[in-house]
């Protein structure tokens, strides 16, 4: 890895952090509607995963998708515009926080029904397999999603058909407010992969380099024809499940413990201790991220609302004479 | 013109489209080795191979979910549900995913998916395997719903559906696979979202679709003997619903009966009736009559089941009522 690559990972994690902090403010002001699920604390997961993927690898995730979108290469201006529901947003203001996508970046969303995108991911991989392309579909979901039927149907199909999928379970310890100890038959999610005959691994999701290296290895094996693999990434979200979370299910001490060993601080320390980057260089990157977010908010605020006469656009691909 | 059965019409459409476009493939329970539980895909496996004629697990969310993913990635899957009743196990993927993805991501993804699903009662399969929930699926913008009533339309609509870039639920009726009719020679498609006058008449407009088309034809033959001249408008598509030919017919008959196999409450008849009143109230000479299934979970007992299902005699009675 070149120095620039190390710095870019840092920049992306900081940019996600700033994006999310700003989104929280905009939500409290009422500029962002609906639900808002922040990625704060989990930045190293998608940053590491996306740093390891190749262009032909598809990425699909759940509703906590802003960070994944940024890492996948979606412009921060367009992400912010989507949060504000603007026509310039990545999904033209029709999807909002939970439904960001950019097919040109091989990022397939942003899916808000828990686990429903898991069989869809199998289908994306099926197309690649049938067309003999060497892409791997990376499907991310929370540990809470491993309790719903779609998960079991999707991973079963992927193994039965040996589809090129990397299943990535982001275990942030709580499905909304319920921990696996209360909701899951097994507390180690990785055990579920064994039931479907898949190689299974786990990795520290607060260590961006560990995630990146692990995912690179997994993708290489899948690309060689190993069939689907399962990766549990242990992580933690510092904020509530969404903006309306009373957080009665965990203690402040527990949260503090994770924040003190957070992914950005850890990577910061790694870069300076290993003398890969200086404090000054990292401060510059923080400032760069601040400026990008400032510009993104300006872009989003100045962007037009969707026009009334576009309400019915894109219900179908083919125009209908008889109406919808 | 050849005379073939509904089953042959559907089978021919699938075969011809698979020959025409290598991206078209079939997936579903027992579509391959078995040849389809209704023998629609008999011989397909030997000719097209297991990659394109895919036997799936008995897992409807996986079938529809993965078909959606494959469609998003450029394939043209025809996913078969063994019966329409199993669509409920894939409900989220049909209404929350297939019907939403194009719109919700601002038009950047397409879901060129056909879901084939035979429904209907009359085969003593009891309440869970005998439903006609067509109206339910027609409720959702983003999904197209077609339900042919003749072999000609069965073939033409299926070919059009496979060539369409939109997700389409193609509803068959399991009791009329042996119904025979003329189909044009060579390649043709039937437009989606276009109703059709299947029989011209001047006294009363009989609006119907699917299995109730042949029933309505029989009723019209009987009524003709008594001097009542029935015009039959076959909706063919429920969404988009083409009211043009219905209103045109009603404006010269001033009387209408709507016949469907599903339950009356919140059904197709309710929708069509409301639209006639909205669009042609000044032309109404008699209260519109609805013929539908009685409001009961269909029983196993042969006599009770037939008692609950709409019969040719019910249509005749309703027509006479509006002619009073």
TrEMBL record, chain A:
It comes from Pelolinea submarina. It comes from the Bacteria. The lineage of its organism: Bacteria, Bacillati, Chloroflexota, Anaerolineae, Anaerolineales. The pyruvate dehydrogenase complex catalyzes the overall conversion of pyruvate to acetyl-CoA and CO(2). Residues 12-306 form the Dehydrogenase E1 component domain. One of its GO terms (molecular function) is pyruvate dehydrogenase (acetyl-transferring) activity. This is Pyruvate dehydrogenase E1 component subunit alpha. Residues 268-302 form a coiled coil. It catalyses: N(6)-[(R)-lipoyl]-L-lysyl-[protein] + pyruvate + H(+) = N(6)-[(R)-S(8)-acetyldihydrolipoyl]-L-lysyl-[protein] + CO2. Pfam families: E1_dh (PF00676). Heterodimer of an alpha and a beta chain. The gene is pdhA.
Automatic annotation (TrEMBL), chain B:
Pfam families: Transket_pyr, Transketolase_C. GO terms for molecular function: oxidoreductase activity. Keywords: Oxidoreductase, Pyruvate, Thiamine pyrophosphate. Residues 4-179 form the Transketolase-like pyrimidine-binding domain. SUPFAM superfamilies: Thiamin diphosphate-binding fold (THDP-binding) (SSF52518), TK C-terminal domain-like (SSF52922). CDD domains: TPP_PYR_E1-PDHc-beta_like (cd07036). The keyword Oxidoreductase applies. Signal peptide: none annotated. The keyword Oxidoreductase applies. Its cofactor is thiamine diphosphate. InterPro entries: THDP-binding, Transketo_C/PFOR_II, Transketolase-like_Pyr-bd, Transketolase_C. PANTHER family: PYRUVATE DEHYDROGENASE E1 COMPONENT BETA SUBUNIT, PYRUVATE DEHYDROGENASE E1 COMPONENT SUBUNIT BETA. This is Pyruvate dehydrogenase E1 component beta subunit.
